[in-house]
Specification:
The chain has 104 residues and is mostly beta strands. 4% of the residues lie in helices and 45% in strands. A four-stranded antiparallel sheet has the order 1-2-6-4, with no helix packed on it. A four-stranded antiparallel sheet has the order 5-3-7-8.
Length: 104
Amino acid sequence: MASSQVFSSPTPPSESVAYPVPLRLDRSGAPECYGLRNVSDEPLRGLSFSLLGSGLMRATPPLLLAPGHEMTLRIRGSTLPESAILIIRWFRPNGDEYLWRVSF
């Protein structure tokens, strides 16, 4: 008994443009002060920071960073470039979560 199968071609991916990182990191105050500016047209909600590796950074509750606004992160560590990574997390207005890994 033969069965007939119908195969359809895969659905092409939707046309979309990559989402650019909406933040700019100013390292001019390094090694202890780092400026972070929202360069997008969207507010970034739930903005939070994690320092992986050696170094010290004050914990903060999740923040809202409006378009064009900036903030300062104070991070201390004698070997940050060799031993630490900063992870920045935020939510877009549609609820999508993003992470940005920053090396020193």
